[in-house]
Amino acid sequence: MKGKWLIAGIAIILGILSIRQLSYTWYTNKVECEAYENSTDEAHEQIVLDSLANDTLDLGIISYNYRDAKNKEMKLGLDLRGGISVILQVQVRDLLEDLADHSENPIFVEALNSADIKQRSQGNRAYVDIFFDEFERIRSEKGQQNLKYASADLFGNRQNASFIEFNETDESIKEKIKDDIDAKIGTAYQVISSRINRFGVVEPVIQRLGGAGDGRILVEMPGEKNKERIKNLLQSTAKLEFWKVEANNPQVTSYFSSVNPQSLGVKTDAQSLAGIIQPALEGNSMFSVATKDTAVINGILNSENLKANMPSSIRNFKYFWGQKPVQTKDANTNGKFLSLYALSGDAQNAPLLLGDVIDQASGERNSGSISNEPIVSMKMNAEGAQKWGRITEENVGNSIAIVLDNTVYSAPNINEPIKGGSSQISGNFTLDEARDLANILQAGSLPASSKIVQLEEVGPSLGQEAINSSLIAFVAVFVLILFWMVFYYSRAGIYADIAVTVNTLFLLGLMVGLFGATLSLPGIAGIILTLAIAIDANIIINERVKDEMLHHGKSLKESISIAYSWKGAISAIFDSHLTSIITAAILLIFGKGPVQGFAITLLIGLFCSLFTAIFLTKLFIDRRLDQGKDVAFFTSITKNWFQGMNIDFMAKRKMFYIISIVVSIACLAIIAVRGFDMGVDFEGGRTYTIRFEQPVSANDVRVNLEKTLTDDDGTTTAPTVKIFGPSNQVKVTTKLKADQESTAIDNEIKQKIYEGVKSFLPANYTYEQFSKDDTAIGIMSVVKVGPTIADDTTRASILAVILALIGVGVYILFRFKWQFGVGIVAGALHDVIVILGLFAALHGILPFNLEIDQAFIAAILTVIGYSINDSVIIFDRIREYMGMYPKMPFDELINKSTNNTLSRTMNTSISMILVVLIIFIFGGETIKGFMFAMLIGVIVGTYSSIYISSQVMYDLTKNKIKKSN
Asked: Shortest CA distance to 222 belongs to which of 87, 88, 80, 70?
């Protein structure tokens, strides 16, 4: 083989670099195990790790310490390590309202409301573009073409005078607004990055998603256990304001006492607030309200008629809740009350002071207090200090509320003027909360509010279980593949095993070192699938060698030379790999999260497979031959397996057409009648994996949850409850308030689920125990997908499948003829319909999850690739035989091609089925549905490559062949 030293050199260099890269992971695991064994708790474990961080490992040619290795180790995804992943949506509507100075122009307001609705169906477009389209449509419909973006009551207001001119064109202003919004989203990204870095998260992933003006930011923190703190850290706008407290104002108290909430359109049985308002439990607040009744007060405060009915003297007050409930011993209210404050501002009804004057903030204990409670100390800049001194001087004897994100954290009395710009926030904090708040203030405020539109939380115990099951599956598959290749192909099988082992080493090394990819459960599935593809490449070569030796009487060297040539096996390997690369690339572009990890793994593996199967095995074979020794490509047992086959596949093609059409119609009918079990990826909602101490009935859990998962008006939203893995674990999916994405709603739903399943938990098992991160019983994982994200995922998934079929069809058209392309697409389409039909027929019947989610789409695309690979191998042989036997009847030629590749087809199919079956059994519950789709796909794909693709191609080609003959 020409260039064998170059091939050997590349292999050795890649091998050394891969081993070096993987050694970092080995070393960090070694150090962390040592720290775990020598510590008493998590805090002590961190101290031990810190003490070992600078210990150097010297391997002679390389040396590094734990801290260096930690930065270069293999990153594990949430499903393997636990942690939290969120997609934040910066509210572009807020930015537009700010730029328009909160204009009440009816066309502007209607355009914003319309853009909110349209964004769900056009989620792939930036919100600002949708707004402009809607504004111009509504403006045209109302005959208000003279209303320009530069109008004073829109974007041509006083605050924008520095960059928007009164006579500027609409198109120019649109570009400026887009640039301004994109810059503010960039600011939001920087602020969030700063907060996360200050929090001290290890290996965070923070990146902007989408194009300019999209407003989505991905934050992933594998291994992070303080999930509630992280969510608060991310969503806090950090809009700090100082307002004057209107304490004990008799007009405020009198008005709220006399209000009939029903007259303001608030849904409640109460006709007055007499039984709801309680005397103030916190000094300087107006009154207190039980937490269960705050919705009534919020309804009043949000009512459009509120200001119209209020006395003019209190109409412009701001009404904000206190930060934390006050605990009492009232059994009827669970003992929790929130305080409501009435606040006033300056002459323009603006805050007395804004938080942008804060220079420094720190969370600490109040050494000047007897209780030593945690506080946030703040230091203002010179301008802020001057203003604060004047404000406190003017308000001696009054109270000033310190408000963060429209919540009153504290409202201290001003006893004397405060000079020097110092202030502090106290609010019944823990020390961690005080430090988090200080970090938020120090990092700066977000330019607009943000909300979590997609959330995934995985507990550490669930992640460890996934690692264990994945390792078992990987080892089992690896051993099976090594054994099978040696059994079937003798010494050539040994060389294939070496190539597959090296392929795995290269794959892992490149994943970690070159691409910095994160390993997840779908990624492990991708690695195992890559092993099967690598074996397939070796099978194609080995089968070609056998074919040349046994059917054509060629010598060993001639057979090997032909097999490793483009006209032999290489073109088939290239075609089959390239079709898989096309589907993997589409997955990488249109997939999200773990699906992208699967695609990256598959892509790297495919390229490594080409190198190891074609070049590395040839290197070993040539070396053996150069030594004057033979290379066995079969054993006495397997020599004649699938040899001399003469099945007339074409004779019964019409029968198989009928079978395929009937099965496809039946599948489509089942889909129409039963539909699918759609996951939250596509429908939105929240999914919780909950583990109990004892086995439970899914129906009993569902009945109990129906009683607690009710909307504010009492409407029941029936959840979906399925046994998930062991009989003491369930998966609960609910769409209750799916379109409301605040942390408060998340906690409300979680509380309702706790109330619903409490009877299945141990006695006195609290909500805090049920929902904490590291628990053996309770919530093991949470997934939340907002409606906009779900719609985007649906569109992207449909597009991915369509583009995969088109992309592969175009490639086959380029490599073969259009009739071949149609045959392949027909076979792949049949496979997709059958898989969809079986998922529709069997969901809720089989004892494992058959949801249609992103992983399922990855499986569909992989099956398409596998089905096409099978067909390409046969088509490649057909094309070869058309040149070799130009006078042979076309149906005989197809039969001969199919029979001569049957050994490869069956060998690869059996290998794939065994591989997929092992992953299905040992790979863990979360990828069972994925592997079930793969299992069906391999079986159906083998059938379609033999009985559909070739037959369709024949019927489209036979007349042309007859004419040419």
From this structure: 80
Rounded Cα–Cα distance for residues 95 and 177 (Å): 10
Please write the tens of the pLDDT for every residue from 29-47: 887 777 777 776 666 666 7
Can you give the residue range of the structural domain that contains 172?
92-202
One domain for residues 259 and 357 = yes
Local structure of 841: helix, strand or coil: helix
3-state class of 87 per DSSP?
Answer: strand
Pairing mode, if any, of strands 83-90 and 216-222? antiparallel
In 3D, which of 575, 579, 653, 655 has the Cα closest to residue 954? 653
Q: Is 226 contained in some domain?
A: no
Average of per-residue pLDDT across 426-454: 76
List, for residues 264-296, the tens digit of each pLDDT value: 666 666 667 767 777 777 767 888 888 777 877
Q: Among 137-151, 342-356, 432-446, which is the least confidently predicted range?
A: 432-446
Domain boundary among 40, 73, 106: 73
In the Cβ-directed half-sphere of 551, how many Cα atoms lie within 13 Å?
A: 16
Contact yes or no for 427/409 (Cβ under 8 A): yes
CA separation for the pair 386, 393 (Å, rounded): 11
CATH of the domain at 284: 3.30.1360.200
Tell me the per-residue pLDDT of 41-96, one tens digit each, with 9 for 90 and over. 666 666 767 676 677 777 766 777 877 777 778 877 777 777 788 888 888 888 89
**Cα–Cα distance measured from residue 463 to residue 457, given in angstroms and rounded to the nearest whole number:** 11
Q: Are residues 710 and 828 in the same domain?
A: no
Tell me which of 22, 41, 73 is where a domain ends.
73
Contact yes or no for 341/320 (Cβ under 8 A):
yes
Assess whether 300 and 386 both reside in one domain.
yes
Q: Are 403 and 344 in contact (CB under 8 A)?
A: no
Category of 777 on φ-ψ map: left (φ > 0), alpha (ψ -120 to 50) or beta: beta
pLDDT > 90? residue 834: yes
Euclidean distance between CA atoms 840 and 856, whole angstroms: 13
Return the half-sphere exposure (C-beta side, CA atoms, 13 A cut-off) of residue 526.
32
Q: For residues 583 and 807, give the distance between their C-alpha atoms in angstroms, rounded to a whole number.
A: 8
State how many domains the chain has. Answer: 5
Residues sharing a CB contact under 8 Å with residue 175, sequence separation 6 or more, in sequence order: none
Residue 160, pLDDT score: 82
635 shares its domain with 698? no
Strand partners, 685: 785
Residue 230 resides in a domain:
no
pLDDT tens digits, residue range 821-830? 888 888 888 9
Q: Do 106 and 135 have their domain in common?
A: yes
Strand order in the sheet with 720-723: 205-209, 216-222, 83-90, 450-458, 778-785, 685-691, 729-734, 720-723
758 HSE (CA, 13 A, CB side): 14
In a domain, 210, yes or no: no
Please give the structure tokens belonging to residue 72.
Answer: 């270069």
Both tokens assigned to 935: 């299992």
Query: Exposed (0-12), middle (13-18) or buried (19+): which is 302, by Cβ within 10 Å?
Result: exposed
Claim to verify: residue 761 and residue 795 sit in the same structural domain: no
Inter-residue contact 359 to 382 (CB < 8 Å): no
Residues 63, 64, 69: CA angle, nearest 5 degrees: 140
Our measurement of the distance from residue 827's CA atom to the centroid of its chain's CA atoms, rounded to an integer in Å, reads 31
For the chain, what is the mean pLDDT? 81
- Please name which of 622, 450, 524 lies closest in space to residue 80, comparing C-alpha atoms: 524
Q: Which two tokens stand for residue 99?
A: 């730029």
Residue 930 corresponds to which tokens in the numbers above? Answer: 């994925």
CA distance 123 to 454: 14
3-state secondary structure of 251: helix
- Asked if pLDDT for residue 124 goes beyond 70, the answer is no
Q: Say yes or no: 471 and 544 in one domain.
A: yes
Local structure of 536: helix, strand or coil? helix
Is residue 677 situated within a structural domain?
Answer: no
What is the β-pairing status of strands 720-723 and 729-734?
antiparallel
Q: Two tokens at 504? A: 């795995």
- Within this chain, do residues 619 and 719 fall inside the same structural domain, yes or no? no
